[in-house]
């Protein structure tokens, strides 16, 4: 099969022929119809993820496609099924999975990190009965691929971890794919959203997706959010992942507000200094959010089906495998506004 692969951290990826994957006993091979290009893929390529240990490596973790083959232990799926998967693939057997918390599975795998990913014509997924999510026939593959990491992560961060309610103020720091998803989801939940970014283009998209106000950073962000919201946001999300945006998100909160860390903060970015004096004095909550389990997709899919959520509007560019290496490398310096989808 054709795939995008690289032979070492920071080395330019290339499209090459690699062996086709085989389905694990409890897993499936999916023919990839669409896969998202995410900043997490760039972090992996740069060596910021300890799960990538062998080369050559194939990135990609946001995918949608058709089941091509299943292992002998799979009972719920067959060739021809239209599916997507969460980027955290669970084992289904550990204590976290037994509690329904597959997004923090103790033996999780992640396509594009712990094993070869979806920048390819085919990808193998283990524990198919736990991790595959059925797609309705009317949902395009590109839209479904946009759900897998950024949109599903944002959905759980806003609704489950942030517990956003109608009329609350929500600040979203960083309006890339996950941030714009969070803007759209929070607005659909009836919240008033303040979008924060350094890019006027990203802020224009945030307005389109429901932001009530925008703040162009990087200076004076927290003060501006507190002024717009009359004392601070009820919920603030760092959707970018940097020491500066993490601190600004916490500083943006009102009393008893909730900070949700969504963007990755790899050690290479430097330590994040959380203003703990403010956390204590205002009784703030500091929460992490790490994807969403396959069993929790129902409410999100229902809102997509009803038109309340439009993840398709986040897709601003579709490219082929040949253009994926350059697009991945560019994410470190000039990430595209909105979401880029690769159609292998």
From TrEMBL:
Its cofactor is Zn(2+). Keywords: Metal-binding, Oxidoreductase, Zinc. The keyword Transport does not apply. Pfam families: ADH_N, ADH_zinc_N. Residues 8-342 form the Enoyl reductase (ER) domain. SUPFAM superfamilies: GroES-like, NAD(P)-binding Rossmann-fold domains. It comes from the Bacteria. Gene3D superfamilies: Medium-chain alcohol dehydrogenases, catalytic domain. The keyword Zinc applies. InterPro entries: ADH-like_C, ADH-like_N, ADH_Zn_CS, ER, GroES-like_sf, NAD(P)-bd_dom_sf, Zn_alcohol_dh. SMART domains: PKS_ER (SM00829). Coiled coil: none annotated. CDD domains: Zn_ADH6. Belongs to the zinc-containing alcohol dehydrogenase family. This is Zinc-dependent alcohol dehydrogenase family protein. It comes from Actinoallomurus liliacearum.
